[in-house]
Amino acid sequence: MLVGLEIVVPIAVVFALIYLIADRTFSVPPYQGLTTNHFNGRKFLNPDPSARRGLVEVLRWKLTSRRAHWNKWTDSQPGPVPPRRVNGDSLRVTFINHATVLVQTEGLNILTDPIWAKRASPLSWVGPKRRRSPGLRFEDLPPIDFVLISHNHYDHLDVQTLVRLNAEHRARFVTGLGNRALLNARGINEVVELDWWDDAKVADELSLICVPAKHFSGRGLSDSDATLWCGYVIQGSAGNIYFAGDTGMGSHFAEIKHRLGPIRLALLPIGAYLPSWFMHPVHISPSEAVEVHQVLAASVSMAIHFGTFALGDDGELEPVVRLREALANNEKIDSSFWVLEHGEGRDVP
Q: How far apart are CA 333 and CA 327, in angstroms?
């Protein structure tokens, strides 16, 4: 009995050390500030109550997961080089892939949740692997003025890409509360940190408004919900552009429409929605994306967050197939919900 105890104790100590090292390495400092209706002084909260997904639910999903088909790698040629600037009320959007989108209007170039990394992971040898090359080569980007970061998950806040954008483009970075510390630690100092419904004026005719999302945050073992997740509305004379980031269904879509008015372009996620019992609180499905398009009364919506990283049980092509099925049942909006090829750019009417 004593021999068994002598074996178990060192193993427990080893696992405890591994946990502490991993936690210290990957977890981010928690936000510290006044309590609000979505911050309890320790954790951020969603706009609508939702079931939490803890370790037990994660293990249940992983033990029962039946992911649909993904190619190991899909070769695709990079898209054409975008224009250097798009001026006035003209609006051009380029789908790079995943949640990375280039928005060009009023002489400014704005990039959302940029990731050029090979993995959405803190480690180069493990974690969700890129299944398709970025739709644009990094070298072909026009000068980037602003980078919008919706939350700190590795597929949305890719430090490697952000450091390069900081060095080569001298961009300004806009993010939710609590994420500035992580960026500052990587030498990125031009950071605007916003709470829900805060706005930052970035040009005479252009403001960036941080809006609610229904999701969560965390990069390590003990920093769950310690920093804010959000979407953005780019508001200007060219019309309002909504970037949803990652989000589940909720009342925030109607509130965004009520507060900020007509949406000219909505960038809506459609992937990583299966299994529904696990993903529904934090990711909208393709059919729900069609509902959101209608709630927002968007002139044009564009699908994002699909076909790049295998993050849910849905297959590589499944989100687009399901979106087109949902649109077939709503023929009047079929032409106003776009699915762009990776790297494709298009002028928004």
A: 7
Q: What is the dihedral of CA 286, 47, 225, 280, to 10 degrees?
A: -30
Question: Cα-flanking dihedrals φ and ψ of residue 200, to 5°?
Answer: -130, 120
Q: What is the pLDDT of residues 261-318, one digit of tens each?
A: 899 999 999 999 999 999 999 999 999 999 999 999 999 999 999 999 999 999 999 9
CB 207 within 8 A of CB 222: no
- Whether pLDDT at 25 is above 90: no
Rounded Cα distance between 197 and 211, Å, is 5
Q: Express each pLDDT in 234-264 by its tens digit.
A: 999 889 999 999 999 999 999 999 999 899 9
Does residue 282 contact residue 250 with C-beta atoms inside 8 Å? Answer: no
Token reading at 311: 């993050």
Pairing between β-strand 240-243 and β-strand 337-338 as defined by DSSP bridges: unpaired
Q: Running DSSP on this structure, what letter comes out for residue 139?
A: G
CA 74, distance to chain mean position in Å, is 22
Q: Which residues pair with 211 in a beta bridge?
A: 231
Closest C-alpha to 259, from 308, 198, 204, 200: 198
- The pLDDT of residue 6: 57
CA–CA separation, 188 vs 102, rounded Å? 20
The CA–CA distances, whole Å, from 249 to 50, 255, 285 equal 10, 12, 9
| Pair of tokens at residue 204 | 């005479």
Angstrom CA distances, 104 to 88, 202, 333, stand at 10, 14, 24
Give Cβ neighbours of residue 20 (< 8 Å, ≥ 6 apart): none
Query: How far is Cα 206 from Cα 190, in angstroms, rounded to an integer?
Result: 18
